[in-house]
Amino acid sequence: MIKAATPRLALLASNRGSNVQAILTACLAGHLDAAPVVVISNNRNAGALEHARQACLPALHLVMDAGAGVEADRCLLQMLRAHRADWVLLAGYLWPVGPQVLAAYRGRILNVHPGPLPEFGGKGMYGLHVHRAVLASGRPATAAVIHQVEEGYDTGPILAERTVPVAADDTPEVLAARVLQTEHALYVDTLREILCGRLAVL
Q1: Separation between Cα atoms, residue 121 and residue 114, nearest integer Å
Q2: Residue 201 has pLDDT above 60, yes or no
Q3: What are the pLDDT digits (tens) for 88-122?
Q4: Which position among 113, 131, 147, 184 bears the catalytic label?
Q5: pLDDT for position 152
Q6: Residue 102 to residues 52, 83, 98, 148, 194: CA-CA distances in angstroms?
Q7: CB-based contacts of 88: which residues, under 8 Å, 6+ apart?
Q8: 113 is an active site residue
Q9: What residue ranges do the domains of the chain occupy?
Q10: Are strands 141-148 and 109-113 parallel, antiparallel or unpaired?
């Protein structure tokens, strides 16, 4: 039974869902005072949905066929409302959030990004694309970032950022693994700060 005052989390992911698993684990262990209530993916084979099933949570597939933007936006909002979600957490979710969901959850949609913003954000900048760009830039460090979600790709206010060093012999895959570990901790820590009222959202 979920306490009435406990924040209810909806988690959206497109692939493996390791950040989904990190948040589920933190909630189960009592490190995060929140209740995951649904996991949603545009990919019916996403590992994130399997994490949800193992946690006995609803695991929902959101159909995102070409041209389905308005309908998918409406369906996603229905799913979120049906599970009475208070917060929407994007965790490797590769589709833009539509205007209906943005309006209904204004200020309560968060995303994790695997590189410094705004330099390494925008359409097409996800996963290994980000890490390849960081390595090509010659920067000595990259970052994991938590930001609020607005209409554009990766354009919302940054809430938290954690630096990750870049080694001279890094490959995109090696750097990705290092950043991902930082993402897991940063997402949970940032959520805790927000839900405890120590970090304000706009």
Answers
A1: 9
A2: yes
A3: 999 999 988 999 999 999 999 999 999 999 999 99
A4: 113
A5: 85
A6: 24, 17, 6, 11, 19
A7: 10, 12, 80, 97, 101, 105, 108, 109, 110, 149
A8: yes
A9: 8-195
A10: antiparallel
Structure tokens at 77: 């909002």
Q: What is the pLDDT of residue 27?
A: 97
How does strand 87-90 pair with strand 59-61? unpaired
- The yes/no answer on whether domain 8-195 falls in CATH 3.40.50.170 is yes
pLDDT tens digits, one per residue of 62-82? 987 755 688 899 999 999 999
What is the DSSP track for 59-96?
EEE----TT-HHHHHHHHHHHHHHTT-SEEEESS--SP
Phi, psi values for residue 201, rounded to 5° = -110, 155
Indicate whether this model's pTM tops 0.90.
yes
DSSP 8-class letter at 41: E
Rounded Cα–Cα distance for residues 95 and 153 (Å): 9
